[in-house]
Specification:
single chain; alpha+beta; Thiol Ester Dehydrase, Chain A; 5-stranded antiparallel β-sheet; 30% strand; elongated
Length: 178
């Protein structure tokens, strides 16, 4: 070993090996996850429209499952960004929520989640909400762990990657300035 180089501490070496292994791992699945739920009376406000928090809960669940399917890891939500409510869902509607991993960093997956409502009478679908959910992979001690990396191929995938990356960078810059 050269005189000016010291061996890496064992913990640093272990983390480096785990990260290198994760960087070469392929995702287990890049297919989206779709959940469907019906809007029941207890899910609505006095206008008979779906509570935003109830919809957010289903969207968060879809994001977490999409990440777990992608990386075969446990994930927790670290941020939700650019969540846009576009239209209400009404009592009796079906809510179809789809989450797709669109961005990854060493420990984090960004998921675009889209919620649509449809009536059972005509099955016409309308987008009611969209947002980006950022999830971090954790081990049994709640420590971040590496995940496989997404490699966007199509123009649409590259566009979504760029949007999610900008959102994440903005979130990180705000955290540093606080």
């Amino acid at each position: 070993m050269p005189k000016n180089k010291r061996p890496l501490p064992l913990l640093t070496l272990r983390v480096h090996i785990i990260w290198r292994r994760a960087a070469t791992m392929k995702p287990f699945s890049t297919e989206p996850v779709t959940l469907i739920e019906e809007v029941f009376p207890q899910d609505t406000n006095s206008y008979d429209t779906l509570f935003g928090g109830r919809l957010l809960s289903v969207m968060d669940k879809a994001a977490g499952i999409a990440c777990s399917k992608f990386a075969h890891r446990e994930f927790v939500t670290i941020s939700i960004d650019t969540l846009t409510f576009k239209a209400p869902a009404r009592q009796g509607d079906l809510i179809e929520v789809t989450g797709r991993v669109v961005f990854t960093s060493t420990h984090t997956a960004g998921v675009k989640v889209t919620a649509c409502a449809m009536t059972k009478s005509d099955w016409e679908t309308r987008v009611i909400c969209e947002g980006y959910f950022f999830m971090v992979a954790i081990d049994s001690m709640m420590r971040p762990i590496p995940i496989p990396q997404l490699e966007p191929a199509s123009d649409e995938e590259k566009k979504e990657w760029t949007i999610a990356e900008e959102i994440r960078n903005n979130m990180l810059s705000k955290r540093k300035s606080a």
